[in-house]
Amino acid sequence: MQTIDVFGVSNSDIASYITRSDVDDRFLEGLSRNKHIIVFGASKQGKTALTNKHLNESQFIRINCSPDTKPLDIYKSILRQLGVEFEEEKATTSKIGGAVSAGFKAKVKIPFATEVELNGKASGDGSNQEQIKYKPVEYNLALPQDISEILKSVNFAKRIILENFHYLDEDSQKEMAFHLRVFEDYNILFIVLGIWREKNRLAQFNGDLQDRLIEVPVEPWKKEYFEEVVKAGEGLLGVSFANVINDIIDNSFDSIGVFQELCKECCIAAGIENKQQNVKLISPANLEAAKTRKVEDYSGRHIRSIETFVEQKIKKSDEIPLYVAYYFIKYLFSLDAVDIEGGLRRQDIHSGIQAIHHRPDDVRPSDMSYFLHNMTANQIKKDIIPPLFDYDRSTRKLKVIDSTLYFFLRNVDTEELFEEFDIPEGI
Predict the structure, then answer these.
(1) Which of 7, 61, 233, 363 is buried most, with the most CB atoms less than 10 Å from its CB?
(2) pLDDT tens, residue by residue, 322-331
């Protein structure tokens, strides 16, 4: 077994995966109770690993969402993956009660079995044989009821995994929240994976989903969990992390992704690529090398993402923007990484920005509402994927949802980094 099979972040199974009763049992409960399952948490916290652990490929179909994905795209992908043929027709729209509803008509080939009588050549006796024929039926592929009827007609009994649900725009997320209620009635069950950190995200869009979902938060990762991961990996590779385990945990900021990557890089720095015949100790020098490597890996993306985040285009020549995003990053960089972990309260962000803003009295509560409520959508529009931040309206807190950002902020000189950013005009 190689190091990269034991430690690290991967879409494939990692051998040091551990079962956590508060997470894995909850997920299995959702499978047994025939309910939609919502798996949520920051990036690289084990959402995909959880589904891979408890479902094999024959039990699900997977759709990877993108910022351009609409519910119709999801449904067409499901049918294509199942080999269901449909002949597309042009979209239709209708207006009901002031709201415009888009439709998508298609003739779907639905299989049905018939019995035909065949004459045996040798004996002359007749025999029956099942023959599969297809009949075209018109459906609206934008409607969850129609999709459910199609899936029932082909005896569909798998789970549908929606990866990166957070990439969908808010209107699509809301639409899916209402569609999931319909799918539940037909026992067409979804597993939704998303990067957010508060409960009831979909129930906020559709209150009828309350108590109809099994929600599985993959966080927090406790110290004992990290120790179990290392113990599992040590036995598989013939190594010992005894001298550095506490430092690795401290530098991981409760992120299993960062933890796994540091363990992997420690082994590589120690020259361990596969199982050792004699137990080899991981040294503090190996950990320092691992930290340096991961800072280099994360720096490029995070610097580009933060630079893009603070950019603001001036729409009019006489416009004087507040540059709230720029001042938010300046405020964020003034904090200790440990202070950011629990989330930042809206009021603290507001007062923190006012304290350093060149026009403090002009930063109104409405400006903060616009900035915070559009936080995730604006990041996705700017191709900051996965997003760095998410604002939870129910708790009025902003949270870091890219678990590698804590490690980055702790291991770079944020003052020096901020000086490299272009100062907006008029400041």
Answers:
(1) 7
(2) 999 999 999 9
